Amino acid sequence: MPEEIRKRRWQLIRDSLVFQGKLLIDGFRDFLLVPAAMGATLLGLITHPREPDYYFKRVISWGKKSETWINLFDSRYQADKSPQLDDLVKIAEEKIRAEYARGGLTASMKDAIDRSMDKSRKPKAAEKNQE
Questions:
Q1: Residues 66-78: pLDDT tens digits?
Q2: What is the largest CA-CA distance in the chain?
Q3: How many Cβ atoms from other residues are within 10 Å of residue 55's Cβ?
């Protein structure tokens, strides 16, 4: 199996796992923002008659910051370079790559998965050659 195909395959797996993780975190954040926004609205109406949106604006600000941190769709147009979830992903990847370089369990698992996926592709490639 050409190495380029393996690299693209692993890049897809990595990208998909990161995206799924971000979706889960984003969904959890949204789950928390619904009651927080409602509570902030009620609290502001009750305790700040002159500035009823005081708490609500704080919730919105937190939502914007968390959206930037999660960076769900890999927005490259950020004005600031504040920490993001992607920074944690990079740290995790570096640790996995270091483990792989040592030839440990990560390397064994990757090789086994590569062999398995290569085998599953061979019959399809043979069918294309017969056509």
A1: 998 888 887 655 5
A2: 78
A3: 20
Helix (H) or strand (E) holding 53: none
Torsion from C-alpha of 16, 20, 23, 27, nearest 10 degrees: 170
Copy the structure tokens of residue 50.
Answer: 């002159």
Q: Compute the half-sphere exposure of residue 44: CA atoms within 13 Å on the CB side of its CA.
A: 16
In 48-104, which ranges are continuous DSSP H helix? Answer: 54-70, 85-101
Tokens of 111: 């090789």
Contact (Cβ atoms closer than 8 angstroms) between residue 84 and residue 71: yes
Task: Determine contact, residues 131/14, Cβ cutoff 8 Å.
Answer: no
pTM: 0.64
> What are the tens digits of pLDDT across the range 39-69?
999 999 999 989 999 999 999 999 999 998 8
